[in-house]
Design brief:
Oligomer: single chain
Order of helices and strands: HHHHHHHHHHHHHHHHH
Number of strands: 0
Number of helices: 17
Distance between the termini: 43 Å
Strand content: under 5%
Structural class: mainly alpha
Radius of gyration: 23 Å
Largest sheet: none
């Protein structure tokens, strides 16, 4: 009787990693991009990050205090939410933007659902969506050029030589969207047989601008472009992503299918000369794709748990991102694509659940 086995509910394999350890591991992975944001955009970026973190932590502690629930700010999840919220806003926003965004992310996107582990959508992205809907001018107008770079990512010499001064205040994706629209308008004029010298001159400049964007891969990779605080440096984001992969906090199914889908679809449909004329590398390096694919779409709480579900989740994020970038009103679609796919996670988990070993299906 003394040697009888103790039977308990699953899971039966324990792991040394705790929620707190994982959350602070994510914080460590975000530090390179945070330091890069401060380097490229100055002290104002540091204030955005600090204010967003403080707002998230204080909001969570205050709500839990008022509702007489255990204070959970020591687990680090509120800090992660604050950093990710800060990474998704421009560096020159007023101080109250990151404060309100983080407070909304915690008070509406996390706590009402039961706290960490129960929120259906990524809180930081929900906070960003709220800010974008409430104060679009603050969230979509970028004024701070990065150190040793330009807002558009196009070299200053090229801007002067090609007469592209009109695009110096636009980010790479904004430049692409506006100039591509001009080219499509010019193609329609050519088909109609009409003459429009002014539009032809604009189309020539648009061609030059898009060709210069394709030559700006290095600026996009290192972070010498305009954008939100933590999304511009692909290099620094990949350093953090490699750390998460090394620690096995995230897998590669979602990031690779997400990025791969964007690459394929932009190659097919994002060109200015018909199908298969797009520049997939530009779209992979631009905007918040790398940040979203590795740090937000892979959120353990709001992403599928099944292998097939994660693949479909990544594909769905990629499709929605490309649709918004090419057809929607905004030049970027990463945030909305992840939020929308978050809502499909229960269905993806249900319909991609692996067959139970040894179970015979009844016909």
């Amino acid at each position: 009787m003394e040697n009888r086995l103790v039977v308990s509910a699953s899971p039966h394999i324990a792991h040394k990693d705790s929620v707190k350890k994982i959350m602070f591991g994510v914080v460590i992975s975000l530090l390179p991009a945070a330091v890069g944001g401060v380097y490229f955009f100055g002290a104002k970026a540091a204030w955005v990050i600090v204010l967003a973190i403080l707002s998230a932590v204080i909001t969570e502690a205050l709500i839990e205090k008022l509702t007489k629930k255990p204070i959970t700010i020591a687990d680090g999840s509120a800090i992660v939410t604050g950093i990710l919220l800060a990474f998704n806003v421009p560096p020159e926003v007023p101080w109250w933007i990151p404060v309100i965004g983080s407070a909304f992310a915690i008070a509406i996107g996390k706590v009402p659902f039961g706290g960490l582990g129960y929120n259906p959508m990524n809180p930081a992205l929900l906070g960003r969506a709220f800010l974008l809907a409430s104060w679009p001018s603050h969230m979509t107008i970028f004024k701070t050029a990065p150190k040793d770079g330009s807002l558009s990512g196009i070299n200053l010499a090229a801007i002067k030589s090609y007469g592209l001064d009109a695009i110096t205040s636009a980010t790479p994706l904004n430049v692409f969207k506006t100039q591509r629209g001009i080219l499509f308008e010019w193609h329609d004029v050519l088909k109609s047989g009409m003459e429009n010298p002014a539009l032809q001159a604009k189309a020539d400049l648009a061609n030059n601008a898009i060709s210069q964007l394709s030559d700006s891969y290095a600026n996009l990779f290192w972070g010498r472009v305009g954008g939100c605080v933590g999304e511009t440096s692909v290099f620094l984001l990949l350093i953090g992503a490699l750390y998460l992969i090394y620690k096995r906090y995230i897998g590669l199914r979602i990031p690779l299918t997400y990025i791969g889908t964007v690459a394929v679809l932009t190659w097919l449909f994002a060109g200015t000369e018909g199908l298969f004329s797009g520049d997939p590398l530009f779209h992979v390096l631009s905007g918040g794709l790398i940040l979203g694919a590795f740090f937000m779409a892979t959120d353990m709480v709001t992403s599928p748990v099944t292998p097939k579900g994660r693949i479909w989740f990544g594909v769905g994020c990629g499709v929605i991102t490309v649709i918004i970038r090419l057809v929607g009103g905004y030049p970027e679609g990463v945030s909305y694509s992840i939020l929308l796919m978050n809502l499909t996670v229960p269905l993806l988990d249900r319909y991609t659940k692996p067959k139970t070993f040894g179970k015979v299906e009844q016909k």
